[in-house]
Amino acid sequence: xxxxxxxxxxxxxxxxxxxxxxxxxxxxxxxxxxxxxxxxxxxxxxxxxxxxxxxxxxxxxxxxxxxxxxxxxxxxxxxxxxxxxxxxxxxxxxxxxxxxxxxxxxxxxxxxxxxxxxxxxxxxxxxxxxxxxxxxxxxxxxxxxxxxxxxxxxxxxxxxxxxxxxxxxxxxxxxxxxxxxxxxxxxxxxxxxxxxxxxxxxxxxxxxxxxxxxxxxxxxxxxxxxxxxxxxxxxxxxxxxxxxxxxxxxxxxxxxxxxxxxxxxxxxxxxxxxxxxxxxxxxxxxxxxxxxxxxxxxxxxxxxxxxxxxxxxxxxxxxxxxxxxxxxxxxxxxxxxxxxxxxxxxxxxxxxxxxxxxx
Length: 359
Fold this sequence. Notes:
Elements: H1 3-77, H2 87-94, H3 97-130, H4 133-142, H5 145-206, H6 214-250, H7 259-268, H8 278-294, H9 297-343, H10 346-357
Helix pairs in contact: 1-5, 1-10, 3-5, 3-6, 3-7, 5-6, 5-9, 6-9
């Protein structure tokens, strides 16, 4: 046999060994990889055991710190029983400056609205006498039919102004009740919230499954929402609405008060000698009204309507729309964001429960 013929079988055997060798080495590779893959499992399991052993201590310290913070908040909120002082100073210190400022604002606004109502009633009484049946025929005969039309138009303007004042007084009374009730309910709601929180945390020290109670979280969220409404939202919404109402009032071109109607009343009263005689007073008023008609009394009636509209807008913004809008904004910022994403965060509760589960 030639060397070339003998080399071909050797080459075939070498190629066959190369094909077989990966099949043999591949199981060895997998067997070699199994202990390598089992090592991270051992390390992770040891890491979980060490982490679970330290987790209860961290969660328990967290609960204890929360209990201490809530207890300190109670002592800071009610310093009266723990500090010797007079009753007068305690009563003065118990009221918030924002609460006193809101009451002063409502009282001042009520006095202004009452003065505006007096201006309207005075002019309305004068027009009612001028348009009465006792003097109406003589006025129409002596003067002009246009006087009756102007009286009717002015009377409608005064009715709209009276309605705006009535709604403003009702809104002021409602806001005063809300402010007083919020001030009185704030400490009680704070005690309810702290009591529920302390009870929830103390029970969680002994039984960690309490942290998963949805009823407890809902009660805490409800009490915290009511407390924030009475403590921050209602007082500061009204307090900030004063600034907004002042800015809106300054943007008006005409004064929003009813002093204009007082000037019209003084103009229509006539001479002082006619004030005791009702008939002479009415005739004098209509005479002046007829003279004023020739001097563009229609413009005065339109100006009075503009004053009433601006007054209604001012009261609507300052007493209803702006406080309501600021209340909704503060509620969204405080209750929806703070309570939902910070105080009762579900991820924190789940993390605590996973830590206590590995105990």
